[in-house]
Amino acid sequence: MVNLASYLDCGNIFKNRNAFDFVVTKFSDLEKKIIPFFQKYPVIGIKSKDFEDFSQVVFMMSENKHLTKQGLEEIKKIKTGMNTARK
To answer: Domain spans of the chain?
Structure first.
């Protein structure tokens, strides 16, 4: 995890019980570092769908769609279908 944060030059690492979390809070890092990295080195399996949804939400936010009621509702809809809720 330390090497990943160093390579991407962003994020912080936190110890969470028996695991570590890699947390990126800077929006521009998501757009310019995280998403391009995982586009170049794709996530494999069902998590690839979550990455697609995540990328779509970041794109929507970059266009300020999260500031409208309709855009926020669309983001909420995408979120409810991610991870264990995916069908």
So the answer is: 42-87
Reference 49, options 40, 60, 38; nearest CA is 38
Q: Following DSSP, what letter does each residue of 20-81 receive, concatenated?
A: EEEE---HHHIIIIIHHHHHHS---STHHHHHHHHHHHHHHHHTTGGGSHHHHHHHHHHHHT
Predicted TM-score (pTM) of the model is 0.84
Residue 76 in tokens: 């909420």
pLDDT > 90? residue 27: yes
Share of the chain above pLDDT 70, in %: 99
Q: Which of 55, 49, 53, 59 is nearest to 35 (CA)?
A: 55
Cα(62)–Cα(80) distance, rounded to whole angstroms? Answer: 20
> By CB neighbour count within 10 A (0-12 exposed, 13-18 middle, 19+ buried), where does 77 fall?
exposed
